[in-house]
Amino acid sequence: MDKQSRWAQLRPYMMIAPAMAGILAFVIYPILYLIYLSFFKYNLMNKDKSKFIGLDNFTQIFTRADFYKALSNTMIYTASVVLLTMFISLLIAVWLNKKSKINVIVQAGIFTPHIISIVSISLVWLWLMEPNLGFLNYVLKTLGLPPSQWLQSSKTALLSVIIVSVWQGIGYYVLIIVAALQSISPSIYEAAALDNASKWKVFYKITLPIISPQLFFILVIMTIGSFKVFDTVQVMTGGGPNNATNTIVYYIYGFRTTNIGYSAATGVVLMAIIGLLTFVYFRLLSKKVHYQ
Amino acid sequence: MKTFEFKYVRFAVGLVLKAAMLMVFIFPFLWMISTSLQTFRETLSFPPTWIPAVPQWRNFIEAMSAGPFLTYAKNSVIVTTSIIVIQMLVMIPAAYAFAKYKFIGKNVLFGMILLAFMIPGQVTFIPVYMMMADWGLIKTLMPQIIPFMSNAFGIFLLRQYFMQIPEEIVEAARLDNASEFKIMWNIMIPMAKPALATVALFSFVSHWNDYFWPLIMTDSASIRPLTLGIAMLRETEGISNWHIIMAGNVVLVVPILIVYLFCSKQIVKAFVYSGIK
Amino acid sequence: MKKNKVTLLLVLTMIISLLAGCAGANNGSNTNSGTNSGSANTPEADEQPAKGGKTTVQFWHSLGGKNGEYMDALIKTFNETHSDIEVVGTFQGNYDETVTKLQQAVAANTAPDVSMLERAYVQMFADSEVLEDLTPFLESSSLSADDFTAGLMGHSTFNDKLVSLPLNRSTPILHVNKSMLDEKGLAVPTTWEEMNQVANALVIQENGEFKRYGFTMPYDTWYPIAMISQAGGKFFNDDNTSIGFADNGVGEKVFNQLKKLQSTGALYYPPAQDSGNITNQMFVEGKVAMMYQSTGSIGGLTEAVDFDYVTAFLPKDEVFANPTGGANVAMMSGSKNKEAAWEFIRWMETDPQGGLQFILKSGYLPFTNKMVESAEIKALWEKEPNRKVAYDQLQYAVDTNKAVAWPEVMHEFFSAIEAIMYDSKDVKSTLDTFKKEADRILAQ
């Protein structure tokens, strides 16, 4: 009996052991390594040439304008992508909610940007957004609107990257929200119809609260995904023009060859920020769980 | 009568709008297919050519004969399927434990999983490469597989899913003297199938399309996946043969389309929570 | 239900056995050679230790596409003519990616014996003391640095050590749509002044939109650096303590010239990403009459254009000047097979069956004096005078961005170019900011 209860105590640890081993080896250990590197002007290829410089890398980070620029870009990017994607996918999902062949095809279609290589996507968008000959400005001009410089001006570049990211991500979230919508029992709507409630009221008072757990889940994974954005920036702008689209992960990656100590130090700062975010989410999540 | 006509018009307008929206999302896909069938000269035209004069099917042959593409394809298949299988084996018990058991340190350990979810490979690749070299694995497919053994997103999603499964079902099974393993295998996994399909599709898409990690982790052609074979079609300097590169990309995307068609129904189910309650 | 479980089990077993199979293939004997595709021009880059006392030399390069195939052919010829050495060539991504990989590989002791290295990174690697001094090897083969094309040796030496040799080298050159110029009775410009006139004369503007531009250049540091040298400046000052074009007004002159041309449509400055591709496309389509672009594009352009296409020297200001680009080849000092590695480098650099064939096919610049004098190159130039122009321009080659910290300074220089060319920020204050950043980096 005693043996059995000890086993029961150990069991959860045994079950999570493989997962934790993977995370220790491939996430926690690299983090510790980065912390070590962050105290050096490090020469990866010739360790004898490395110089211990204490906290210099960190003082440099916090005095450099481009770091703050990258950080604020990341924040703006994350907030915009999350809000826009959420809003638009909700709209489209409500629109495509009815079960029909056409809707299924359209859903599959808007999912395709998710699965084709980012290089193909970027090539097409670079052409569309070309300021002088591109299709988007052609449309704007036809509509009598002023053309935009899109990726070529630091005023509009981040917005352009956001547009492409939202466009790319929507298909997946529409799929999730449609599923959530379809899970609502028709009897609830029938009751509402008897009450003569307006469509908007039904949506706002009934639909939205019911699918809120799914929306919250989307919110969490989208925030995380956006915060570590890399690919889109790399292929669309390379962080430019003039750092206008430099995000924090791209910033870290940018220093990998020239100054790995500084790169590592920035990684450590990112980790601290992420740790904080994790904590906040964890709090929110556990609340959510109690609520259910 | 009037309402019938109104409905008819509404349907037609809706159809047109839906077709327009569909176009907004699939044009890069169409463009990719179009380019893969163009001649070199057509790829250089501006504004871009949309419909090739004569479809150039031999572009595909040219792309596939530019390197050991069979080896690349084999590696892609082995790496992605291994990742998915290992992730499943690691993820299911962990998610189950996090969802259904109480134990000391649970919050801290789960926090670590969330942290892992948030750290991108571009930040951690150098220490991981050096570790793989220390373990003598650089010449194998392992560095492309084992760093992904713990899928934090998957554990996170699956845990949420397991938590939705009412405690009574588990209790009832325990009263029937079912072992914990049996409960997991016979009750939890079948119920979580949609969630598992979601994770599998996600893993598949991201690892099948991954360029950065295999490039960083492999030093020789015999262990490389398709994405690197296709990247190799690109010129470093000078004018790239986009028709050939896009032919390669079309080949790359076909398996994903198949998996998507296969999984999308399951995914829809994954987020229909009411089915479980 | 039961059926599902059985299927699952079956799939699992299958995959696990697949896994086991693959692990076996990679660790044990050569079991996967049969599954490699039978394409003739690709060497099998297997990691198997060579049999029969063969020394294996690992060679990393950054060449994809057609040039990658030419490199594969070169390696194949080498292996066929050398019974005791097996060279394994592997593509490692573009130049930047190769550098990243090389750095981590040196740190992890998995570096190759020989590597291609983008010329601007040579100093950085040499400073970390991971490149072998090639001088003794040259001497042992009765060669000397003077046997190589002088204009391409700018990045080869570091602290009096010869650490790399030129391989796939290129230089920026003026590509001209001669038909378009002839139509207007214009001559190919040779000075900045003429460039201003010709480029402006070629602009076609309708309803406030540019239908045709005068000239273009990809987004790169290369072209502004070329113009800095042409205007009599230097990128770094002579002792590499600061930049050499801020205080003497050269930088302002260069960027003001570019901005002036840009404002009238005489210059089309492309988006940063994929700019080389975009400028090429515009040139081929006749949307732009002239273009600064790498010599590496000559082959593709010749094939694609349907007009009279010529190349010319970059126009001069005070002097003719042009930087060089492309990559060198270096031997890693961690190599355990230095003799074999050197034999490969020597053969590639000097054997008529080696580098010469690669140069003839790819369109990169010939890099030894013997090569330049060879009958094959002479015949090629006869047939394609555009390529001779590229070589002739090398007499004005000058590389002033040689410093260990160049890659880091380059990062900042790109920001300055973007601020000026895209955001039309004030030239002087942008260059002042750049100078401050560069000085900080150089002082480290």
From TrEMBL, chain A:
<feature type="transmembrane region" description="Helical">
    <location>
        <begin position="157"/>
        <end position="181"/>
    </location>
</feature>
<keyword id="KW-0812">Transmembrane</keyword>
<keyword id="KW-0472">Membrane</keyword>
<dbReference type="InterPro" id="IPR051393">
    <property type="entry name" value="ABC_transporter_permease"/>
</dbReference>
<feature type="transmembrane region" description="Helical">
    <location>
        <begin position="260"/>
        <end position="282"/>
    </location>
</feature>
<feature type="transmembrane region" description="Helical">
    <location>
        <begin position="12"/>
        <end position="36"/>
    </location>
</feature>
<comment type="similarity">
    <text>Belongs to the binding-protein-dependent transport system permease family.</text>
</comment>
<dbReference type="Pfam" id="PF00528">
    <property type="entry name" value="BPD_transp_1"/>
</dbReference>
<dbReference type="InterPro" id="IPR035906">
    <property type="entry name" value="MetI-like_sf"/>
</dbReference>
<feature type="transmembrane region" description="Helical">
    <location>
        <begin position="75"/>
        <end position="96"/>
    </location>
</feature>
<keyword id="KW-0813">Transport</keyword>
<feature type="transmembrane region" description="Helical">
    <location>
        <begin position="108"/>
        <end position="128"/>
    </location>
</feature>
<feature type="domain" description="ABC transmembrane type-1">
    <location>
        <begin position="71"/>
        <end position="281"/>
    </location>
</feature>
<keyword id="KW-1133">Transmembrane helix</keyword>
<protein>
    <submittedName>
        <fullName>Carbohydrate ABC transporter permease</fullName>
    </submittedName>
</protein>
UniProtKB/TrEMBL annotation, chain B:
<keyword id="KW-1003">Cell membrane</keyword>
<keyword id="KW-0472">Membrane</keyword>
<comment type="similarity">
    <text>Belongs to the binding-protein-dependent transport system permease family.</text>
</comment>
<protein>
    <submittedName>
        <fullName>Carbohydrate ABC transporter permease</fullName>
    </submittedName>
</protein>
<feature type="domain" description="ABC transmembrane type-1">
    <location>
        <begin position="73"/>
        <end position="263"/>
    </location>
</feature>
<feature type="transmembrane region" description="Helical">
    <location>
        <begin position="108"/>
        <end position="129"/>
    </location>
</feature>
<feature type="transmembrane region" description="Helical">
    <location>
        <begin position="183"/>
        <end position="205"/>
    </location>
</feature>
<keyword id="KW-0812">Transmembrane</keyword>
<feature type="transmembrane region" description="Helical">
    <location>
        <begin position="12"/>
        <end position="33"/>
    </location>
</feature>
<keyword id="KW-0813">Transport</keyword>
<dbReference type="Pfam" id="PF00528">
    <property type="entry name" value="BPD_transp_1"/>
</dbReference>
<dbReference type="InterPro" id="IPR035906">
    <property type="entry name" value="MetI-like_sf"/>
</dbReference>
<feature type="transmembrane region" description="Helical">
    <location>
        <begin position="242"/>
        <end position="263"/>
    </location>
</feature>
<feature type="transmembrane region" description="Helical">
    <location>
        <begin position="141"/>
        <end position="162"/>
    </location>
</feature>
<feature type="transmembrane region" description="Helical">
    <location>
        <begin position="77"/>
        <end position="96"/>
    </location>
</feature>
TrEMBL record, chain C:
<feature type="compositionally biased region" description="Low complexity">
    <location>
        <begin position="31"/>
        <end position="42"/>
    </location>
</feature>
<keyword id="KW-0732">Signal</keyword>
<comment type="similarity">
    <text>Belongs to the bacterial solute-binding protein 1 family.</text>
</comment>
<dbReference type="InterPro" id="IPR050490">
    <property type="entry name" value="Bact_solute-bd_prot1"/>
</dbReference>
<dbReference type="Pfam" id="PF13416">
    <property type="entry name" value="SBP_bac_8"/>
</dbReference>
<dbReference type="InterPro" id="IPR006059">
    <property type="entry name" value="SBP"/>
</dbReference>
<protein>
    <submittedName>
        <fullName>ABC transporter substrate-binding protein</fullName>
    </submittedName>
</protein>
<feature type="signal peptide">
    <location>
        <begin position="1"/>
        <end position="25"/>
    </location>
</feature>
<keyword id="KW-0813">Transport</keyword>
<feature type="region of interest" description="Disordered">
    <location>
        <begin position="31"/>
        <end position="54"/>
    </location>
</feature>
